[in-house]
Amino acid sequence: MKHPLAALALYLAAPMAGPGLAEAQTPFRIVEYATGLERPWGGAFLPDGRLLVTERPGRLRLVGPDGAVSAPLTGVPPVEARGQGGMLDVALAPDFATAREIYLCHAMLVQGGALTRLTRARLAMDGASLEGAAPILDAAPPQEQGRNHYGCRIAFGPDGAMYLATGERQVTKPRAQRLDDLGGKVLRLARNGASLADNPHAGRPGVRAEVFTHGHRNPQGLAFNPWTGSLWQAEFGARGGDEVNVLRPGRNYGWPLVTHGVDYDGSRIGEGVSRPDLEAPIHVWTPSVSPSGIAFYTGDAFPAWRGSLFVAALNPPGLLRLTTRGDRVTGEERLLGDRGRLRTVLQGPDGFLYILTDEGRGRILQLRP
Question: Ranges for the Glucose/Sorbosone dehydrogenase domain (predicted)?
């Protein structure tokens, strides 16, 4: 649906900081940039400024610089759109300008149940279709039980590798701790979905060589810190215990052995909040905020925000700004608490922030100075 900027309502937002949080100093305007989307989940800006957006029911659309939303692209692979599944993340290959290659992460129903699937395709030159869409990795094994916790965030690293976050699918057995299982992991992959020879578990018998880190519950935020080169991850806890982690090769991040949260019935999970042999998060939310997509801000439109990590939060809804120094979190500011469930935050080529709302009548909000 097309919305010329001149016709849009602009709102002056006064960010608020609570006790112990980052000082709020940057006013901004909120523009309803695009509407007419159903449960938008992931997005990636093309070199020409258009935004490629996934819709969880199984569609892919392009949003123009004027906010116009295209018809659904053809050639998109089928998905398992039940529970928390569907068409989830999308990422462009680093050489997209010449290769036209994109990657999709989605839920898929196969023999034996549902799983997280990584698919590679090419975006046609006219932008109306995908060409040659084919699966390159399944986060096996599939399972019949449940349709939640797919993870499904993709990030390309400065090392040229592709990183994929997968959920543990909300099962009672500890999939996240099994190294012969791709659930509850962050994987390090070549562009064809294969493991890389210098992965931390390469050559270990009985271990999936794709595994970069393990012990994750439902990671839906994944971004490289452009100043340190490290990989940051945001992860859902249960009741409390939502986390931000800095990922180190081969390390175990604890789920479900340790957590700051409790089960939904109030019972204890695991052995406590920490253990010396397990990696501790660098930031924890208790009570939960349900963190999803994350993005480091590197732009010039908001100079005071440079170096911040933005987190799209679902419950309670909002946009969280974490101030950082190196690989540490130094403060937190909570924004947009009245704009509904927020699924993904992206930095646009103009330096503005773009936020996808998790709604049946989904929107893209734009933050501008």
Answer: 37-365
CATH no., domain 73-282 = 2.120.10.30
Q: What are the E-state strand segments in 19-175? A: 28-37, 40-45, 51-55, 59-63, 87-92, 101-110, 113-123, 130-138, 151-156, 162-166
Structure-block tokens of residue 96: 């997209």
Closest of 309, 312, 315, 316 to residue 356, by C-alpha: 312
Q: Answer whether residue 24 shows pLDDT above 60.
A: no
> Which pLDDT tens digit goes with each residue over 176-230?
999 999 999 999 999 999 999 999 999 999 999 999 999 999 999 999 999 999 9
Where along the chain do its domains lie? 1-38+289-369, 73-282
CA distance 44 to 62: 10
Active site residue ranges: 149
User: Strands 342-347 and 162-166, how do they pair?
Assistant: unpaired
User: Of 17-31, 138-152, 183-197, 260-274, where does mean pLDDT reach its minimum?
Assistant: 17-31
